[in-house]
């Protein structure tokens, strides 16, 4: 108990430098714990999102007579979901979660975000016919920014062949299109966030709990020399470290709660959530409140043990032992072996399909490489410093290299955070390249498909004249082989193909269609007769028509994906009887590909036919929404990693300058100029940082390429991102060099020169 009381007294009544160090340790741990809590709260936020989505899922089945119809349309990168409900003529139906009562025909219940959007975009009201009578509560929404609505309709206003009996709400499983992030995306996201946040965070917390490590070790050695036992000396050190870590952990949890309440509803990361969803779980609190003090104790135990067992060596600043090379080799060699093997497969052109094995090996190889990269810095830079010092004739460089040769671990604390940041940035770039292959849209036009059976002839005519629609045609598929047949003129066909790519088209007769960019032309199509079943405006059978594929071929090129990909026959509209259309036909519309134009066109089309399924060909709104969430989370991870890396550099650099005041004062007294001291300190920081960033760029590119090779995309090598990474590395070197200049001062403190 005496040793514990002594430790508390040193913390509470110690000199000003000790109290300042305690405050910095606590604040540093608070920032690290806040970042850790934010990273660990992401799974809880996603689970709450998916749980409410599963709880409101409309289930078909036996019911009391109510019918429902679901429509989902893209609004930017967010889905706009409309649930049309026809209440029973007698009796009641239970309301969905978050809704007090089921809307009656002519009534609409919307989410708060959709209510605000209706006020900004009056053209959207056509898709929600009726009067807004209420808003959906949090229990029925996945987040505060979700666009969701329940629309009351009569039975006659719902398509008979698509409306289903309403059996209830809630499902044991979340539908794939309702999940915030699908299972295939969670693994790479978790892996990237670990590299972006957790690795630099571990380094940062280690730096914070070892502030003024040299001065603290000398003080503990003095206590040991005054008669304190080795065990009590360890306890005194643990009291100070654990007190700072516990205070910092509590402050960090509070900071996380404050930030969570501030940014939860903003949708800053592509996903808005309710503040209660981001509250730390019991496991998160345990990791923050117990894990941070445990890490602090383990990080400070080494120096405390050294001071307790070798007090004279610590007081006299004996030369530390050489860094262990085998530990770095154990980590970096297997990691580089894994990522290099996949890169070699990519060079050989061997396509590696994504699998459970690659999902484990690639993240494991990247993490081992990152950890080994940091641990390899001390032995590599110490060897390099010895070689430079033996050959150089410049005094600043000699001072820097000789000092780094004797204490390479001190510089490691300064540069490891920035090195890991550059390494993680390269990995993140690879993930973004893989995602960009999915979300990139380079088509010259955007197609829309509307089933004929869901719209009347008047509605179809109105859709073809909507602002933003540049072309229209009728398309259908044969049930036998799913080959497409297009009913259009040459002028109409031209609106759906790439400009200038159509050859050999002539109106007035059926023609064969072929896109040379998809597959070679099937000669067996020539002379084949296609029978098309016909329907009238009421959807009733009205005979059939037969068309033979001629030898004349119209060649064209369309941007994939397109409804015209498998189309083999072009039929002129006049070849069909008036008032009839092919069975299973859909109205194809073409418009501008810009996101703003697509959204405006969808709003106008939905206003003409609110209950029709309007399919923007090639746009999977759920995937776009997930991509926006993933990119937002990766951007947040990059920001957290940047904050952690810069904070680790500033804290460790300042702490190292404080520990070196005695050496700096001694060199100044011996006549070394301030300019020389600044150049030496700058070189001592830049050497390990340059080696580390160089290794991070090489290892990061290998890890990024291994991810791209195993990601299933067409891009294996990301050459466009290399200049940006090189410029970022040079920027980090410049900032670190400038930040190290003010650390050498000419002020002489006699107290620093006093010897025992």
Task: Tell me what you see in this structure.
There is one protein chain. The chain has 756 residues and is of the alpha+beta class. Helix content is 54%, strand content 13%. It has 20 helices and 18 strands. It has helices at residues 2-13, 16-55, 112-120, 183-208, 213-225, 230-263, 282-309, 311-315, 325-347, 356-391, 395-406, 408-439, 457-464, 490-494, 595-608, 621-659, 661-669, 674-710, 722-740, 750-753; strands spanning 58-60, 67-75, 78-86, 107-110, 131-135, 147-152, 164-169, 446-451, 469-477, 484-487, 511-514, 529-535, 541-548, 553-555, 567-571, 581-582, 586-591, 615-616. The strands form 3 sheets. It has an 8-stranded mixed sheet. Helix 2 (16-55) runs antiparallel to helix 7. The longest helix has 40 residues, at 16-55.
Secondary-structure topology with pairs:
Layout lengths: L1 H12 L2 H40 L2 E3 L6 E9 L2 E9 L20 E4 L1 H9 L10 E5 L11 E6 L11 E6 L13 H26 L4 H13 L4 H34 L18 H28 L1 H5 L9 H23 L8 H36 L3 H12 L1 H32 L6 E6 L5 H8 L4 E9 L6 E4 L2 H5 L16 E4 L14 E7 L5 E8 L4 E3 L11 E5 L9 E2 L3 E6 L3 H14 L6 E2 L4 H39 L1 H9 L4 H37 L11 H19 L9 H4 L3
Parallel strand pairs: 3-6, 4-5, 10-15, 11-14
Antiparallel strand pairs: 1-7, 2-3, 2-7, 4-6, 8-17, 8-18, 9-10, 9-17, 11-15, 12-13, 12-16
Helix pairs in contact: 1-6, 2-4, 2-6, 2-7, 2-16, 4-10, 4-12, 4-16, 5-6, 5-7, 6-7, 9-10, 9-18, 10-11, 10-12, 10-18, 11-12, 11-18, 12-16, 12-18, 12-19, 18-19
Q: Give the CA-CA distance, first to last residue.
A: 30 Å
The percentage helix is: 40-55%
Uncertain residue ranges: none
Count of strand segments: 18
Task: Please state roughly what percent of the residues sit in beta strands, choosing from under 5%, 5-15%, 15-25%, 25-35%, 35-45% or over 45%.
Answer: 5-15%
Largest sheet, if any?
8 strands, mixed
**Total of helices:** 20
Strand order of the largest sheet: 14-11-15-10-9-17-8-18
* Overall pLDDT: 77
Structural Rg: 34 Å
Shape: elongated
SS-derived structural category: alpha+beta
């Amino acid at each position: 108990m005496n040793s514990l009381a002594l430790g508390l007294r040193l913390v509470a009544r110690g000199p000003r430098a000790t109290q300042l160090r305690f405050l910095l340790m606590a604040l540093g741990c608070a920032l690290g714990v806040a970042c850790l809590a934010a990273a660990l709260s992401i799974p809880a936020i996603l689970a709450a999102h998916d749980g409410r989505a599963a709880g409101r899922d409309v289930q078909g089945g036996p019911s009391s007579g109510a019918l429902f119809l679901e429509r989902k349309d893209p609004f930017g990168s967010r889905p706009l979901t409309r649930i049309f409900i026809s209440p029973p003529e007698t009796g009641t139906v239970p309301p969905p979660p978050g809704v007090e009562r089921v809307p009656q025909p002519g009534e609409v219940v919307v989410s708060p975000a959709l209510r605000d959007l209706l006020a900004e975009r009056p053209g959207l009201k056509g898709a929600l016919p009726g009067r807004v009578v209420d808003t959906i509560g949090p229990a029925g929404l996945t987040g505060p920014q979700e666009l969701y609505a329940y629309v009351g309709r009569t039975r006659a206003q719902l398509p008979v062949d698509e409306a289903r009996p309403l059996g209830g709400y809630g499902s044991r499983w979340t539908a794939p299109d309702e999940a915030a992030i699908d299972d295939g995306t969670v693994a790479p996201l978790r892996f990237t966030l670990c590299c972006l946040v957790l690795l630099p965070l571990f380094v940062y917390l280690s730096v914070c709990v070892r502030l003024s490590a040299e001065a603290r070790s000398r003080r503990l050695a003095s206590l040991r020399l005054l008669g304190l036992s080795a065990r009590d000396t360890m306890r005194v050190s643990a009291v100070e470290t654990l007190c700072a870590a516990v205070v910092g952990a509590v402050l960090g949890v509070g900071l996380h709660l404050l930030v969570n309440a501030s940014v939860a509803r903003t949708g800053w990361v592509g996903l808005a959530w309710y503040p209660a969803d981001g509250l730390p779980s019991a496991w998160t609190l345990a990791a923050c409140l117990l894990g941070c003090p445990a890490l602090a104790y383990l990080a400070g135990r080494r120096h405390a043990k050294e001071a307790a067992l070798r007090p004279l060596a610590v007081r006299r600043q004996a030369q530390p032992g050489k860094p262990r090379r085998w530990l770095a080799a154990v980590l970096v060699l297997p990691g580089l072996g894994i990522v290099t093997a996949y890169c070699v497969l990519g060079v050989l052109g061997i396509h590696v399909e994504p699998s459970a094995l690659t999902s484990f090996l690639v993240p494991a190889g990247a993490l081992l490489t990152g950890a080994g990269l940091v641990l390899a810095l001390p032995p590599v830079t110490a060897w390099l410093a010895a070689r430079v010092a033996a050959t150089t004739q410049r005094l600043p460089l000699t001072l820097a290299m000789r000092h780094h040769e004797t204490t390479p671990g001190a510089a490691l604390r300064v540069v490891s955070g920035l090195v890991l940041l550059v390494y993680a940035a390269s990995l993140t770039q690879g993930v973004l390249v893989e995602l960009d292959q999915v979300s990139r849209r380079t088509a010259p036009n955007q197609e829309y498909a509307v089933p004929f059976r869901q719209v009347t002839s008047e509605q179809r005519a109105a859709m073809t004249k909507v602002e933003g629609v540049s072309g229209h045609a009728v398309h259908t598929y044969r049930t036998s082989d799913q080959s497409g047949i297009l009913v259009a003129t040459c002028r109409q066909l031209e609106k759906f193909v790439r400009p200038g790519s159509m050859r050999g088209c002539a109106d007035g007769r059926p023609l064969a269609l072929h896109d040379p960019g998809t597959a070679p032309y099937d000669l067996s199509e020539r002379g084949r007769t296609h029978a098309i079943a016909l329907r009238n405006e009421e959807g009733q059978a009205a005979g059939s028509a037969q068309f033979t594929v001629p030898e004349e071929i119209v060649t064209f090129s369309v941007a994939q994906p397109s409804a015209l990909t498998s189309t083999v026959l072009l039929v002129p509209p006049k070849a069909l009887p008036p008032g009839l259309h092919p069975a299973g036909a859909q109205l194809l519309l073409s418009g501008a590909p810009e996101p703003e134009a697509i959204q405006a066109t969808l709003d106008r089309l939905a206003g003409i036919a609110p209950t029709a399924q309007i399919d923007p060909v090639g746009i999977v709104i759920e995937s776009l929404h997930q991509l926006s969430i993933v990119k937002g989370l990766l951007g947040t991870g990059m920001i957290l990693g940047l904050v952690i890396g810069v904070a680790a550099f500033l804290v460790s650099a300042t702490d190292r300058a404080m520990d070196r005041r005695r050496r700096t004062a001694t060199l100044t007294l011996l006549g070394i100029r301030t300019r020389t001291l600044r150049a030496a300190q700058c070189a001592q920081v830049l050497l390990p940082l340059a080696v580390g960033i160089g290794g991070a760029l090489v290892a990061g590119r290998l890890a990024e390429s291994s991810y791209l090779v195993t990601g299933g995309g067409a891009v294996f090598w990301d050459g466009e991102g290399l200049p940006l990474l090189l410029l970022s590395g040079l920027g980090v070197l410049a900032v670190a060099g400038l930040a190290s200049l003010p650390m050498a001062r000419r002020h002489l403190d006699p107290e620093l020169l006093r010897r025992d």
